[in-house]
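Backbone description:
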Amino acid sequence: MRLYLVQHANAVSKDTDPLRPLSDAGRKDAFNMAAFLRTANITVNQVVHSGKLRAEETANALAEAVWPGQTPEAMDGIEPNDPTEHLYNAALTAGGDLMVVGHMPFMGRMAARCLTGAEDGATVAFEPGAVLCLERQEETWILDAFIKPSMVVEP
């Protein structure tokens, strides 16, 4: 099973819009990442997001490529400062590949938990719109891929 941890794409500032939708650059990055994932034939069994608008918009863009015809749903317990226990257990019982779109520092702590066994272990250099793929092999999570928007060529 694979777990895709995604930091939402770039959002507008809170001063610009308190709901913080994706910025023009964020929408472009999410679209480009979706195109890249589609070309790479990445598919998942479920896409979830934190419920915040910027995460939902990113999840919707990516789901069109990796989970076509389905609508991502909000998941409790993946807010920026939530503990990772809820998502970690959900990933272990997901029954298929799972994409989770959320926020820092949660995504960094979740990556550390999977890779090192501790939320405060070595982290990953997420940036807005980045996708980290972890693969579960027996009792161990391994880093399968890490793609940043700056690495993706426009379609």
